[in-house]
Amino acid sequence: MSIKVRYFASLGEQVGRSESELTFSQAMTVRDVWQLDTIEKSIPDNVLVAINMEYADLDIQVQDGDEVAFFPPVTGG
Amino acid sequence: MSIKVRYFASLGEQVGRSESELTFSQAMTVRDVWQLDTIEKSIPDNVLVAINMEYADLDIQVQDGDEVAFFPPVTGG
Amino acid sequence: MKVKICSAAFNPWQEIQAYQATLATSAKFGATSIFIGTMRDYNEGDAVQSMTLDYYPGMTEKQLEKILTDAEQCWQIIDAYIVHRVGEINPDDTIVLVVVWSSHRGDAFDASRFIMEALKSTAPFWKKELLESGQTRWVEKNTDGYQKM
Amino acid sequence: MKVKICSAAFNPWQEIQAYQATLATSAKFGATSIFIGTMRDYNEGDAVQSMTLDYYPGMTEKQLEKILTDAEQCWQIIDAYIVHRVGEINPDDTIVLVVVWSSHRGDAFDASRFIMEALKSTAPFWKKELLESGQTRWVEKNTDGYQKM
Fold it and tell me: Which ipTM was obtained for this model?
């Protein structure tokens, strides 16, 4: 299956890109996605996660076609 | 000494006038003023009182030249 | 800080912009909290045609100024402005405008709400409604703005 | 209820009036509570020259709509409107506008504050400041709007 991974704001700068396409065959959680896509970078404590534009947890399993987004605490308003 | 007494809104309608001038010689509280000026009318529980345009209590003693106002609960805004 | 009593209809947006233009502290306020009270065409289940707002000239202004001073002592306010209508009022007319400018939203929200509650419970204004039925009646009491209706 | 993302400067007073003109419920709202967030020219002790507001197109709108739906379930709201700026922003520019129309002031105040706090903590926007010194920095965290500063 394949998913799209997105990184926003300071997290995009840390990871060094704003988007990836990942293809894999085994079941993976959001946490696994982070580890696979950002080798050697530990996951920040305050990271926020969205799957298909809705907030989600790191332990949720991703599905084929999902858009998984990682971003830092929001600072709008 | 003499004072000015004012009644506002529904209280003015109940008392039957919006203003009186009172002249007297003995010491009087606001409550005494009400009783002297509005014979036979008992003082409403929720009446508000101002002396010289500042909120006051019924037991305050009035001074020569004071403007004493009685009014119902306020309903602005 | 300023209070203004209006005996004719006023446009709240014009009032806010005109007052804000006088603030020397441009770019220093991050938060503006505004409350606008508008006359409804019903009250307590009855259709209301119009309203007369009575007040105590002199004391009303004094009391509104006291409310602003009290708010300024409790919260960090850059400026605040109250406009209140009196006299004959029609549905859709603005009755009251409260604006608070502050650096931070917590102070702006807290202060504007405090000002409205204090105004509703202590500022000498009295509403007399003319119902569609032709009857007139004094509004007897303001409700508590912190309780859910 | 509506949310709007603006990539160019907007006039909050025009936005409010234009949206309010579409409300069918004229004379039914007694209370309007408005919050306006404006860009300041300083933050955390530093002079700020300008700011870039990044967002997550699609999710940001969805999240703002969810906030309005949540507010509607907790309070009696007649209508609500959020406008939020993105892109390049200068001091004095409006960043966010939240308007809540309600029959009663308690609901209007509660809902507008809820919306602002929810927006500040959950809506995907990120500020990057360009300081007068020439340095850029990401704003790391929004403060709690209920705590006094």
Answer: 0.94
